[in-house]
Amino acid sequence: MATVSKENIGLLHEKLTVKLEKTDYLPTFEKALKEYGKKANIPGFRKGMVPAGLIKKMYGPSLFTDEVLKSVDRELISYLQNEKLDIFAQPLPLESDFHQLDVNNPADYTFHFEIGMKPAFGLPDLGKVPTTRYVVTVTDEMVDSEITRLQNRYGNMKDEEAVSAEENVLNLLFTETDAAGTEVEGGIKKDNSILVKYFTEDFRKIWTGKKTGDSTITTLKNAFDEKEREWIIGDLGLDKSAAAAADKTFKIEITKVGLLEKRELNEEFFTQLYPGQEVKTEADFRQKIREEIQAYWSGQAMNQIHDQVFHQLVDHTPIDFPEAFLKKWVKTQGETSKSDEEVEAEFPKFISQLKWTLISDKIVQDHAIQVNPDEIRAFAKQQLFGYMGGANLSDDQPWVADYVEKMMKDRKYVEDAYNRLQTQKIFEWAATQVKPADKDISADDFAKLVEEHQHHHH
User: Fold this and answer.
1) Is the pTM of the predicted complex or chain greater than 0.70?
2) Across-strand partners of 169?
3) What domains, with CATH codes, occur in the chain?
4) How does DSSP classify residue 20?
5) I want to staple 251 with a disulfide (CB 3.0 to 4.6 A). Which of 86, 175, 186, 391 is the partner?
6) Is the predicted pLDDT of residue 96 greater than 60, yes or no?
């Protein structure tokens, strides 16, 4: 009769010993051998009439190993379930144990496995940890800028014969060339649409009076200041961080000259943007814009609170790990075994991610956080409308329902959506526990704070 025993070999690190007697696996092996003999197709023999000795010689070793391993797995699984052991990953076998198998000499076998135990731990009291809610000051300039953006977005474009103002919109064809202006074979060729005012001050003068078909040859560094240049470099598919990108030469040809006529600020425009919301005057409109900007920055501030909560939980929750076991497990992951140096280099990031997984699992269990299928359907619908550019679509149209049900049959999509929604609920719960202190901040300073934080984590 098979037995399983456990021995501690380190912090949260145990060795399991599985002892099999011949009677635990031999009957099933002999049965499997007979079944195989009935089905085997071997030239020179009728089906089901192959001699048992030949079947054993040809297929016995693999069938023998399979049946022994099935018996070991069965005993392991039963032991882990009965003892209610909460372990990381799967038991790691000592490979040398499997060299002892011999179909011609069935015997009692002993196998050894290592397991890493999941630790018990408590979470910090989020109500006592320091957190900050950044309150971005919405200025009149921010409101003016957004109104101008909307006026331009909903304005009318009219064709112009020649470039006459910084507000002219130029449809341009960028063609990569060498310094002499000869097109680079296989080089970049891309259309773009740019306001004249986005070029350098000197370059704007070059465009004045130019018409469709006119062109110039220049480097990106000469044509654009740093902020605009970074955007153009990215749009052309170049590496923003590569210094050489700014020195690339392009032929820039005008394919069309236009002028954007801004939309007038009137009740028709207000109603188009905010139907049924009683936005009738410019003052109403400005107030609506201010509220939307404030809501945007409040959302960004909440993301920051979530980020602070994440770091508080990960950095200030003491959790022990079976590091010796986990390093062995990491080493075995992937198509080829990792070196000790690779494991050591990867391990800190691996442990940080594992720590967050344990913490989030504990929050989910302790506070009964659930995601139901209807929430996944609503998420899929929301994503669809996002893909459609936020258009005001009716969500009761048959094709919308068909799309959602199609996504619900996609296992990977459902798993990803479930994880995203669950993570969102974890942070929403955590945000109800903290007591953040408000701190006024400008939009620029807040953006710098976020950028510096992201840079630090990359």
Assistant:
1) yes
2) 195, 258
3) 3-117 (3.30.70.1050), 156-261 (3.10.50.40), 286-456 (1.10.3120)
4) E
5) 175
6) yes
What angle (nearest 5°) sits at the alpha carbon of residue 352, between those of residues 347 and 357? Answer: 120
Q: What is the pLDDT of residue 392?
A: 55
Given a cut of 70, whether residue 418 has pLDDT beyond it is yes
Beta bridge partners of 190: 174
Q: Is the dihedral of CA 27, 33, 34, 39 positive or negative?
A: positive
| Token digits of residue 383 | 């994503």
| Whole-number Å distance between alpha carbons of 232 and 170 | 14
Name the token pair of 184.
Answer: 């680079």
Report the C-alpha gap between 324 and 116 in whole angstroms: 9
The number of C-alpha atoms within 13 Å of 452 and in the hemisphere containing its C-beta is 6
DSSP structure class, residue 84 = T
Which tokens go with 403?
């799309």
Q: What are the pLDDT digits (tens) for 206-242?
A: 999 999 999 999 999 999 998 899 999 999 999 888 8
Residues 15 and 6: their CA atoms lie apart, in Å, by 6
- Backbone phi and psi for residue 120, each to the nearest 5 degrees, phi listed first: -90, 140
